[in-house]
Design goal:
Elements lengths: L2 H50 L19 E11 L2 E9 L11 E5 L12 H13 L2 E5 L8 H12 L1 H4 L6 E6 L1 H13 L4 E7 L18 E7 L11 H9 L4 E6 L6 H4 L3 H16 L4
Parallel strand pairs: 3-4, 3-5, 5-6, 6-7, 7-8
Antiparallel strand pairs: 1-2, 2-4
Helix pairs in contact: 3-5
Length: 291
């Protein structure tokens, strides 16, 4: 074989070898990039899961949903001044809603307490945030439980007359009442809010039979009754007569019992049944808007 042919063969072999090396390095590079991309995506997914994970603080409502920490809050609006004592309310708005979309208002009525600023307690604040994150405008307020139940009716009148200033829907109102706030609250809101209240949610409290008298029961809004099986204050059967008479009048009544729930099970009984009832109560309000 001539020297020129040998030289050509060597050059060809060198070129082939360089091509193989180039291809190997290219695929290694691509593989490396792909590996990096996959790891980055996995890290991003893990990061998102961490951000969306909800950690419940002690003393707050056991049912938590995304967005509770991002709702808009307007605090300390004076709804009543009595003998130089101001009674105030808070409004929680759905994220990025504020005064623009006028969300449907839900008023929360706390039970008997010695805390004069119970609306700002972690417990009631968490309820306000939950209701707003669900899509409503939550109204929490202080009222002098046990001494001035008229605060409740005055609050309702204020909300009805200031829907524009509060940036809420003025066509209807939902009510959530707790414990001793049920008996006082339901009486007062129905007397002051005739034709405006769409639904009432009662948590571990006694509903007043008086609202069913004199044919008033026929105008009773839809009522959701949530009771606790291990109740110390208002046993599950405390509303049996109310439910029976309301049914005779054709009222829309839904009654649920948490068999293992204690008084205040929405914060003290951290289980799936409690969360199910809380979610169901919010769905109930939504289903009865402006009916």
């Amino acid at each position: 074989m001539s020297k020129s042919k040998i030289l050509i063969s060597v050059c060809l072999l060198l070129l082939i070898g360089m091509g193989v090396l180039f291809l190997l390095s290219y695929y290694d590079k691509e593989s490396g990039e792909s590996t990096i991309n996959i790891e980055t995506a996995e890290e991003a997914t893990a990061s998102n899961e961490t951000e969306e994970k909800i950690v419940r603080k002690p003393g707050t409502v056991v049912y938590q949903i995304p967005g509770m920490e991002k709702v808009e809050l307007v605090k300390d609006i004076v709804y009543k001044a009595d003998k130089d004592v101001e009674q105030k309310l808070n409004v929680y708005y759905p994220l990025e809603s504020g005064f623009k979309n006028k969300p449907y208002p839900v008023i929360l009525i706390h039970g008997r307490t010695s805390d004069k600023n119970f609306k700002d307690s972690e417990y009631f604040d968490s309820w306000g945030r939950l209701v707003a994150a669900y899509g409503f405008a939550a109204v929490t307020f202080n009222w002098r439980s046990g001494t001035v139940p008229e605060d409740i009716s005055d609050l309702l009148v204020y909300v009805k007359e200031h829907t524009e200033e509060l940036g809420i829907d003025g066509k209807g109102i939902g009510i959530i009442a707790f414990s001793a706030g049920v008996e006082n609250g339901v009486q007062k809101v129905l007397s002051a809010g005739t034709g405006v209240i769409d639904s009432i949610v009662s948590y571990y409290g006694k509903l007043p039979l008086s609202v069913l008298e004199n044919n008033q029961g026929k105008e009773l809004p839809a009522v959701f009754i949530a009771e606790a099986g291990l109740e110390n204050y208002f046993p599950p059967d405390c509303n049996d007569e109310f439910v029976s008479k309301a049914a005779e009048l054709g009222c829309d009544i839904t009654e649920v019992v948490h068999p293992e729930g204690v008084h205040g099970f929405d914060v003290y009984t951290d289980d799936d049944k409690a969360r199910e009832i809380i979610k169901e109560s919010l769905t109930f309000i939504e289903a009865n808007i402006n009916k």
